[in-house]
Amino acid sequence: MVSAILLAAGESKRMGRPKQLLLWERQPILVRSLKNLMGAQVDEVVLVLGHEGNHILQEIQKYVQTGFKVAMNPRYREGMSTSIQRGLQEIDPGSQAVLIALADQPLVESRTLNKIINAYGPGNYGIVVPAYQGRRGNPVLLSLKYKPEMLALTGDVGCRRILQLHPEEVLEVEVDSPGILKDIDTEADYTSFLSCIGSFKIYP
What we know:
Blueprint: E1 2-8, E2 23-24, E3 27-28, H1 29-38, E4 44-49, H2 53-60, E5 69-72, H3 80-90, E6 97-102, H4 110-119, E7 127-132, E8 135-136, E9 140-143, H5 147-151, H6 160-165, E10 170-174, H7 187-195
Parallel strand pairs: 1-4, 1-6, 4-5, 7-10
Antiparallel strand pairs: 2-3, 6-9, 7-8, 7-9
């Protein structure tokens, strides 16, 4: 069983407005990221919200109402690590691995997610990382044997520290989607994102 945690609790300080609700194809990018996960071979999706969480949830429910869990993170100001930990509190206890995804990566389509998931196998590598033309990106899939280490993370960090501690456990999987490298932090990123959509491979 593989669970997915979609991190969407941040304050979008560099953007100056909730980037989760930036529009692409007449929908918030968070909706696209959520639908990509729901269309992949995961057993459940946990959406972690924080800053303006109720407002963001109300807005995305205009496009998608069911098929995911919602976890509110009251400690979102302490950084991404707290959102990972909040999501871990909500996943099914029978889950064997967790896929940590970012809300501002709507170009990571379901087929790319499936390639990451299918590369994972208990007893082999404990961590799967996608790469595009040799550059590592997100999301990252981790065995839940690393759960204690994820719960010990602090500050505004993801799971990079765990990858650094266990390099021999990391399987790098080459994918054909540059979307794993593209996130949106600033208005300039958003403008670039909109202008270069045609250069990305988009799949249903």
